[in-house]
Amino acid sequence: MTILRQTAFLFALFLCSCALAQQPYGTAKSAEKLQGLSDLETIDQMMYYIPGIGSSSREDLLRQNIKPYMMPIRQVPQTGMEWAYALADALEYYVNLNSNFKDNMSPDYISMSLANAGTRPNLVDGLGLLMNAGTVSAAIVPYNSSTIPNSVYSVARFGIENFGYLFRPETKPRNRVFEARKALSRGNPVIVELSTDDRFTGLKSGTYEPDGPATEKHFMTVIGYDGEAETFELRSSLGRNWGAGGYVTISYEDFGELAQTGYVLIPKE
């Protein structure tokens, strides 16, 4: 039995039980301030439903893709920065939804702020920074910056209300697929920590199928799914010459096995 059939019943239950919990982007949220939510029911209540993108229509439940709403693919200066670029990608998606301009968020500010605070930069601490302080536009702290200018203290900050753990390494593979699809069906990108083989960094194909032991870790943004083909589409920060213009598709089965942790942002009003 395919993963699609295995998760179909759960996905139907989600539609029935969570439709009332879906809240439009921009509406008030709970006062919950715990950094990083793990309870899936609480995440359901706080996760945004984005009108015009997320939908409960039959077609959108079969396939969804938010690629047209994402900014152009960028290239990290080193793979150790992928997590910061994935955070900036997801945050700017929400920031630009309700604006007439398209602004890039600075991943370098996130990383350097954590380093300057004596913290070893990583995704979870980056999420905490977005909750507590926010980042700035890449026009203020450009890509590949080595210092933070004083001007950051007088410009707008962009952050999040909270974030949720959609799944963890101990989560069953089929549930990882289900939770990622659920978030995307509402119009939310999903940041994932993906375990891959050693040929992933140099991938030149638009499809990824593991062909060896998992020796690398990459942070990707899940931006679409196709229930008929049983695939997810992932966005990288490895540049346009990687994969298919910076994107790659992966089967539900491989995603369920390789996606270790999944995160969804809960943006501010």
TrEMBL record:
Pfam families referenced in this protein's UniProt entry, alphabetically: Peptidase_C1
Cited InterPro entries: Papain-like_cys_pep_sf (IPR038765), Peptidase_C1A_C (IPR000668)
Keywords linked to the UniProt accession: Hydrolase, Protease, Signal
Signal peptide positions on this chain: 1-21
Domain Peptidase C1A papain C-terminal: 72-253
GO biological process, one term: proteolysis
PROSITE patterns: PROKAR_LIPOPROTEIN
GO molecular function: cysteine-type peptidase activity
Name of this chain's protein: Papain like protease
Organism (species): Neolewinella xylanilytica
Lineage: Bacteria, Pseudomonadati, Bacteroidota, Saprospiria, Saprospirales
